[in-house]
Amino acid sequence: MNRSDFEADLLREGYRIFYGGLRASEINPDHRHGWDARIMVIAGEITITRDGKAETFREGESCMVPANDPHAEHSGPQGVAYIVGRRAV
User: Fold this and answer.
1) CA 86 to CA 43: how far, in whole Å?
2) Percent of the chain scoring above 70 in pLDDT
3) Which tens digits make up the pLDDT trace of 53-64?
4) pLDDT of the residue at 23
5) Looking at the chain, which terminus has fewer C-beta neighbours within 10 angstroms, N or C?
6) How many structural domains does the chain have?
7) Integer Cα distance of 9 and 30 in angstroms
8) What is the pLDDT of residues 5-32, one digit of tens each?
9) CATH code for position 62
């Protein structure tokens, strides 16, 4: 899925779109969000760890993090830029 298709899909599904990122090798330890999140990497990479399992996402890849799902984030050596959709639960 390309960036414009991803954004259109987010809007169709009731998500609000935000743009963000993390600096090189930045770590967000275990935390939760009070909303569903869908993320597409537009530059760099991010590793998301859930239930002890780490999964890395690179440019053009996406994932979903359900509301209240505990997870940690770790950006790659170049940092990460992403599009994120947030939807209230």
Assistant:
1) 19
2) 100
3) 999 999 999 999
4) 98
5) C
6) 1
7) 28
8) 999 999 999 999 999 999 999 999 999 9
9) 2.60.120.10
Sign (positive or negative) of CA dihedral 38, 60, 30, 26: negative
Output the six-digit token pair for 51. Answer: 């239930």
So what's the pLDDT on residue 57? 98
- Minimal CA–CA distance to 60: which of 86, 80, 35, 85? 80
> How far, in Å, CA of 7 to CA of 75, rounded?
22
In sequence order, what E strands does the chain have? Answer: 16-22, 27-31, 35-50, 53-58, 62-65, 71-88
| β 16-22/53-58 pair status | unpaired
